[in-house]
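Help: why these numbers?

___
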Amino acid sequence: MTLKVTPTRLPEVLVIEPRVFGDERGFFMESYNQAAFEQATGLALKFVQDNHSRSAHGVLRGLHYQIRQPQGKLVRVTSGKVFDVAVDMRRSSPRLGQWAGAELSADNKRQLWVPPGFAHGFVVLSDSADFLYKTTDYYAPEFERALAWNDSRVAIQWPLGELKQAPALSGKDAAAPHWAGAEFFD
């Protein structure tokens, strides 16, 4: 299996494109192959949990991270289209507070690797989207933190022009702290 791996503007955040075999009947691809992933990325990871969410058009989830038991996430979309974002939350990083984004869709079949130490979020650009992701650690709600999606210091360029209204947020995401109140990784 050959994977195309492209670093984003944050070199640890990777866009991964699996090899897709398609014809008039449909397509086939390996969505994950540990040996191929390790060979293409140089990352030897152990994934412990798979998650699946479905969201309607305009839903914005994030920016989430776990301050303890940090999760690396390998994310993809199996139905619909999202704009996916990672923000460096590592105090020791020269890229602290910088972000990278990529469009993920059922059509382009891209995946995004979001390492531990990064906040993560996405906005749904299609009528709905099924979002699947593998994590390197278990969900631990007591350690979950959030950063405001619209923080002016981070200044993510969300493609909000594609939405029919303001993004739909959970109560938790609407109350997420801005940069001055955020917790960081050492």
Summary: Helices lie at 34-41, 171-174. The longest helix spans residues 34-41. The CA atoms of residues 35 and 44 lie 9 Å apart.
